[in-house]
């Protein structure tokens, strides 16, 4: 299982920052942003190899299930 920031959202934020810098903003004046979108991934193949049974209720919560 993995719970972390959404990579696509992080790259979008990089683009916004870059655009602001190219428009003349000073990097030191830009706020530090924290991810607001997270994703929950479950790798069933690895869970099975480790002998872990993942309940169906947890699978329903996952954004992506790798089989």
Characteristic key phrases:
alpha+beta, 67 residues
General description of the model:
- The structure is a single chain.
- The chain is an alpha+beta fold and 67 residues long.
- It is 42% helix and 19% strand.
- It has a three-stranded mixed beta sheet.
- The longest helix is centred in the first third of the chain and has 16 residues, at 7-22.
- The chain starts with a strand and ends with a strand.
- The model has no long low-confidence stretch (mean pLDDT 93).
Brief digest:
The protein has helices spanning 7-22, 44-49, 56-61; strands spanning 2-5, 38-43, 64-66. It has 67 residues and is an alpha+beta fold. A three-stranded mixed sheet has the order 1-2-3.
């Amino acid at each position: 299982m993995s719970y972390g920031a959404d990579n696509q959202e992080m790259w979008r934020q990089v683009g916004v920052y870059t655009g602001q810098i190219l428009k003349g903003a000073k990097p030191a004046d830009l706020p530090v942003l924290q991810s607001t979108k997270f994703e929950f991934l479950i790798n069933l193949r690895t869970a099975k190899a480790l002998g872990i049974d993942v309940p169906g209720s947890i699978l329903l919560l996952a954004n992506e299930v790798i089989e």
